[in-house]
Sequence to fold (681 residues):
Amino acid sequence: MSDLVLETKNLVKHFPLTRGVVFKKQYGAVRAVDGVNLELRRGETLGIVGESGCGKSTLARMLVGLETPTSGDLFVQGKNMSKVGGEERRRGRRNIQLVMQDPYTSLNPRMTVGDIIGEPFQVHPDVVPKSQRRGKVQELLELVGLNPEHINRYPHQFSGGQRQRIGIARALALNPEIILCDEPVSALDVSIQAQVINLLEKLQNELGLSYIFIAHDLSVVRHIADRVAVMYLGKIVEVGTEDEIYESPTHPYTQALLSAVPVPDPTLRGQRDQIVLTGDVPSPADPPSGCRFRTRCWKAQDICAEQEPLLQIRDKSGHPSACHFAEVRDVVHATE
Amino acid sequence: MSSDVNVKLDALPGADPNALPLQVKDLHVEFRTRNGIAHAVNGVSFDLRAGETRAILGESGCGKSVTAQAIMGILDSPPGFVTGGEILYRGVDLLKLPESERRKVRANRIAMIFQDALSALNPVFTVGFQLAELFRKHRGMSRQDAKARAVELLDLVKIPAAKQRVNDYPHQFSGGMRQRVMIAMALALDPEVLIADEPTTALDVTVQAQIMALLAELQRERNMGLVLITHDMGVVADVADRISVMYAGRVIEEAGVNDIYASPAHPYTKGLLESIPRLDLKGQELSAIKGLPPALTNIPPGCAFNPRCRYAQEVCRKDPAPPLYQVSPSRTAACHFWKEVKGDE
Fold:
């Protein structure tokens, strides 16, 4: 089990909804993440996909320690991060770093690139001795494909793709084992997107990193991920290897999501069996009873409202799916 | 739909009911900024037939949205100026019309939907008021009639419980529903041409599928021309008839949708298609286009794409920029080496 670098057990985050100013009363909660179990192995890329509002970013923030879980456990290299405190916790956090979505707002415009990438060393001074920090920052710049001489420049002097590289360099500064990428390429143009994805794969090979890759672009996730978890309204509805999820999805939501992705091949137009879901994602403050997807599901029956389907292996496909009626359905894929 | 507005349009100089609903000819737009003149659009031309979907494909900063703004006449001016070219609606050059006449064309004959519906709608008026306003101003309807039409429109774009929702404010709608309201607003006056500027970029894929299906249905019903501005090559493959690929303010390739995807004739188009992650390339490096798009204040001489191009030779680095070569009777590409690009598949 030493292979497991990160594990979550029943991780939950509820944001309370309160009424009143002086006599605050909680009348409900937004169930952003509602019981998530994940495993990440060394050198692996785990993709997390889902629509906006499904809780994937809240999950990411909990994993890096920016949010405290309401309940549940987070293990980083076997250590329960919610139990340990102080120095040990800081050390654990060092091992998991975040690359953020928007390269325009996640870099302080008044700091130079050198200061931005070197800032983690102020929090964790023992990683690199003070005298070598500048050199280390230049090394990092070179590693992510930027000119080390640009260390004194400011973020506005770089393009979007270059800024994302700065964000990646900052995440690498503390030699982490796990990098969490929260929509790292969705703000970038297609041609630049490919450059950043290539960089991430190169770094993984060179440094033996494990990635958690959160994105809504399913073809990007397919390209980079080894395993994929599909989230809907705070829960994982299906998880499996990249092949299992994309080739033989068994959860209706995964099937609908995959079929909705436009295929960049005009000859397939009209041949695809597209499932157009009706309606919007329900509010996570008041999720439907039983299966959370049942309000938009074409397979829904009475049992779906009464009994919540567990994430478990049900049929021959051999990967867990949270649907009472999980079965494989043929779909034409986004990336064929 | 009453047509007193149309009657007036027919009286405009050059009006020809048999001409194409939209023709853009050699359009030039520049932005005069403190850092010099940014040449955002440098000679863009395209035609749009009734019922046709024309995709304008390109990355940020290639001038695709500016082209749309110039067609609609909503360019921020200053700093933006249309410095040349023609925009013809049924033979009438919109650029030569006085603003008062142009207003009648806008929304009425050519309408537009925007990427971010929340900022395109006015937050302090109800959706119903904003829809009804169109009928009151353009059609002179009474408040009551206009409101009734607004409900009809919301029904048309499949907003559930339209009668109640018409009194809601934009923030009370979800992203997809807001985009539907925008579509309703654009279609209110039965335009012949709809310009959609990244209509689904801000939406999730499942909602995107809903919106694109709705747009396609409405377009078919009304035989409306659609100019779809996007960078999403999946969406384009799904809905477009013809494609204009833009780079640094120029159309660098123009062709039918099948031609472009099967055998791109410009290295940029080819690079774009190759940088989409695909199943058979899993585990391999994506072939990214190296480098960055040029700053519009400083477009390189010759072909604007030459610093990033693997086919580039001496001739590409010299002015003039490559003209649009006729690749086949129905397609053009602005590359000296289009034969090579198209051939080495």
Remarks:
- Chain B touches chain A through 46 residues (CB under 8 Å).
- Chain B has two domains: 4-240, 247-277+288-343.
- The mean pLDDT of chain B is 87.
- The first strand of chain B starts at residue 22 and ends at 33.
